[in-house]
Amino acid sequence: MKTWFKKHFAVSELGAETLQKATFACFLTDLWNMTPVILLMFLADQLLNHRFT
Predict the structure, then answer these.
(1) What's this model's pTM, rounded to 2 decimal places?
(2) Angstrom distance (rounded) from CA 35 to CA 26
(3) Are 16 and 5 in contact (CB under 8 A)?
(4) Cα–Cα dist 39/5, whole Å
(5) Long-range contacts of 13-22 (CB under 8 A, 24+ apart)
(6) What pLDDT sits at residue 12?
(7) So where are the chain's domains?
(8) Is residue 11 packed enough to be buried (19+ CB in 10 Å), middle (13-18) or exposed (0-12)?
(9) pLDDT reported for residue 50
(10) Which end of the chain has fewer CB atoms at under 10 Å, N or C?
(11) Separation between Cα atoms, residue 1 and residue 23, nearest integer Å
(12) Which helix (H) or strand (E) holds 34?
């Protein structure tokens, strides 16, 4: 992935490594922020399906 960053964004080795860390951290943050919504949707689905079936 570092070579892809270096090729497409013209960054140094250190810049590519930092960009890779930032990308991974951003992905984990997005996943962490989506977790409550996913759990709420799962709970609502379970409640609605058991109530109307």
Answers:
(1) 0.70
(2) 14
(3) yes
(4) 34
(5) none
(6) 95
(7) 25-53
(8) middle
(9) 82
(10) C
(11) 11
(12) helix 13-52
Question: Could you tell me the two tokens for 40?
Answer: 């709420």
**For position 3, what pLDDT does the model report?**
92
- Residue 53: what pLDDT? 58
Burial class (CB in 10 A: 0-12, 13-18, 19+), 16: buried
Contacts of 20 (CB under 8 A, 6+ apart): 1, 2, 5
Q: Looking at residue 52, what is its pLDDT?
A: 64
pLDDT mean by block of 10 residues, the chain; 53 residues: 92 96 98 97 91 64
Rounded CA separation 40/29 (Å): 18
